[in-house]
Design a protein that fits this description.
- InterPro entries: Nucleotide-bd_a/b_plait_sf, RBD_domain_sf, RRM_dom.
- Residues 311-383 are annotated as: Disordered.
- By secondary structure, the protein is an alpha+beta fold.
- Among the domains are: 2-130, 2-Layer Sandwich (Alpha-Beta Plaits); 418-540, no CATH class.
- It has 9 helices and 8 strands.
- It has helices at 38-45, 75-85, 132-287, 290-412, 421-437, 469-482, 485-498, 501-507, 516-540; strands at 2-7, 10-16, 21-33, 51-58, 65-72, 89-90, 93-94, 96-102.
- Strands 4-5-3-8 form a 4-stranded antiparallel β-sheet, with helices on one face. A two-stranded antiparallel ribbon has the order 1-2. The protein has a two-stranded antiparallel sheet with strand order 6-7.
Length: 551
């Protein structure tokens, strides 16, 4: 029966079946250079497993090649070495690896109990490796394997290209994600700004309400004072009206008394005249005749009639005095009493007005003292708060400065006298990531070391006042030669957005700086970098520049 046989890793027609034995732990390596040593074999085959023995076999008929027999401690190591190293190039020559067979022509026989390969190494003859037919088959097999290797290499190249495309796509995705993250960050910053504005408006509204309440309280106090003054004025008006009425009553009484006096005086005059007339007529009657007596009698009757009228008038006046006299006397007696009551009432109202005025003055003084005490308390509290805030700010500035110093010391360790551009780029990227992530406030204020200034200077030699447009251009000119185009474009875009004044205002970076001089210097340096980044960003985006053309 025609079968195949395994030789040097290949199967060949072998004719009649002949069973052979082989050592599964031992391999033979052929087509080695003459200067190959045992150390070289250990170097190339130790990686497959522990090696028990390595023997070099010289074949004079083989010309400039030698063989080596390698014995491993395990079958797995021998199989792995045969599979991995067969047809590999070692020291510029392709080698062949196979198991060592026993009992075949020209191959070593299994060692007996009294012999060892270590003691008497067997040398192979040319007949063991002869046969043009087998050599041709081996060459064809080798060519086929070389073609397979080339095919595998082409497949690997295609896989590499696909991986490169996937990497580029991943970079684009990462860039879009970065832009989206920046947009989200800007939205968050805008939302925080709106929240702060709403809180500020709420605080202003609360202050307005407090002021309105204070004004309302003051208005109520003023209204109370006005009401008290109005009441006092009303009382004074009532007193004046009462005094006027009393004076009017006094005037009327006086007029009545004058009228009564005139009436009494007229009655007395009439009585006196009547008496005189009666006396005259009586004297004339005593010296005249009868006619004279009759005339006198008539005059007497007339006088009597008049006297009766006067008596009736007096009686009427008396009756009238009896009717109205006590009231007039009471009014006359009440007049000084009313004046005293009026004066007492006026004094009482004057005292009440003075007491009210004193109470108002006392309240005003107490209110002024209370306000002054509140102002002093507020001033003391504000001063203490300002001192505490200043101390906390100074401590925060020292902590942030120390953090930046330690970071720069770690970067600059060992390169104090020499600062390469690669270190400048690494520091810029590190500080940029910190700058974007930190939420600067009075607890962690912005300092000169916190800002990723695009410059090639060593951090220990950098001063914010030294930042110029040329320094920024020099930095990115150096960076452009060290980065790929996409990475450079992304770096320029992020830096341009990072130093934009609107970005600084939205993040309230300068608000965290209480030192006015440092705040002005940081703002000036940031504006310089922002102005220098605008043309660089336009060039990186392919925008035509009027001075330098297309980038």
């Amino acid at each position: 029966m025609i079968t195949t046989a395994l030789w040097n890793g290949c199967w060949y027609p072998a004719g009649t079946v002949s069973l052979k034995t082989y050592d599964p732990c031992t391999i033979i390596v052929t087509n080695l250079l003459l200067d190959t040593t045992i150390e070289n074999m250990h170097t190339n085959f130790d990686k497959f497993g522990p090696i028990v023995e390595v023997r070099m076999v010289e074949r004079p008929a083989a010309g400039d090649t030698v063989s080596a027999i390698v014995t491993f401690s395990t079958e797995e190591a021998a199989k792995l070495a045969r599979a991995r190293m067969s047809l590999q190039v070692l020291n510029g020559r392709r080698i062949f690896v196979n198991f060592v067979e026993y009992g075949s022509r020209g191959h070593p026989s299994p060692p007996s109990a009294h012999s060892s390969w270590r003691e008497e190494p067997r040398k192979f003859t040319k007949a063991e490796f002869a046969g043009d037919d087998g050599r041709a088959r081996k060459e064809e097999t080798a060519k086929r394997k070389v073609a397979e290797a080339e095919t595998a290499e082409a497949a690997a190249i295609a896989e590499t290209a696909a991986a490169t495309r996937a990497l580029t796509s991943a970079e684009d995705i990462l860039e879009r994600a970065s832009r989206l993250s920046d947009q989200r960050e800007e939205e968050v910053v805008a939302s925080e700004a709106k929240t702060r504005a709403a809180n500020e408006a709420l605080r202003r509204a609360e202050r307005a309400v407090d002021e309105a309440q204070c004004a309302a309280r003051a208005a109520r106090v003023h209204a109370n004072l006005m009401d008290e003054g109005f009441q006092a004025a009303t009382l004074r008006a009532e007193l004046a009206c009462s005094a006027f009425k009393a004076a009017h009553v006094n005037v009327v009484s006086a007029d009545n008394r004058v009228d009564r006096a005139k009436t009494s005086e007229e009655a007395a005059k009439l009585r006196t005249k009547a008496a005189k007339d009666v006396a005259a007529r009586l004297s004339g009657a005593s010296g005249g005749g009868a006619p004279a007596k009759e005339g006198a009698r008539d005059d007497l009757q007339e006088s009597i009639r008049r006297m009766q009228e006067l008596r009736a008038q007096e009686e009427e006046d008396r009756h009238q005095r009896e009717t109205t006299g006590p009231d007039d006397e009471e009014q006359a007696s009440n007049q000084p009493r009313a004046g005293k009551e009026q004066r007492r009432e006026e004094d009482r109202h004057a005292k009440e007005s003075a007491a009210n005025a004193e109470e108002v003055r006392r309240r005003e003084e107490e209110e002024e003292e209370r306000k002054a005490a509140e102002q002093r308390q507020k001033a003391d509290a504000a001063r203490c708060e300002a001192e505490a805030m200043q101390k906390a700010y100074d401590d925060a500035v020292r902590a942030e400065t120390e953090r930046c110093r330690r970071r720069d010391d770690d970067i600059c360790s060992g390169v104090r006298s020499w600062w390469p551009a690669t270190f400048a780029l690494q520091r810029f990227e590190l500080v940029s990531s910190e700058f974007d992530a930190i939420q600067f406030s009075e607890r962690q204020p912005l300092t000169a070391g916190s800002v990723p200034w695009p410059t090639l200077l060593c951090p220990s030699k950098l001063d914010v006042a030294d930042i110029t447009w040329d320094m920024v251009d020099a930095f990115f000119e150096e960076v452009r030669s060290a980065l790929a185009a996409s990475e450079y474009r992304r770096l320029v875009e992020k830096t341009h957005r990072r130093f934009h004044p609107d970005k600084w205002r939205s993040r309230r970076l300068l608000v965290s700086v209480r030192d006015e001089d440092l705040r002005k210097r940081l703002e000036s340096a940031g504006n310089i970098v922002a102005q220098a980044m605008t043309p660089l960003w336009r060039k990186s985006q392919g925008v035509l520049d009027s001075d330098e053309g297309w980038w």
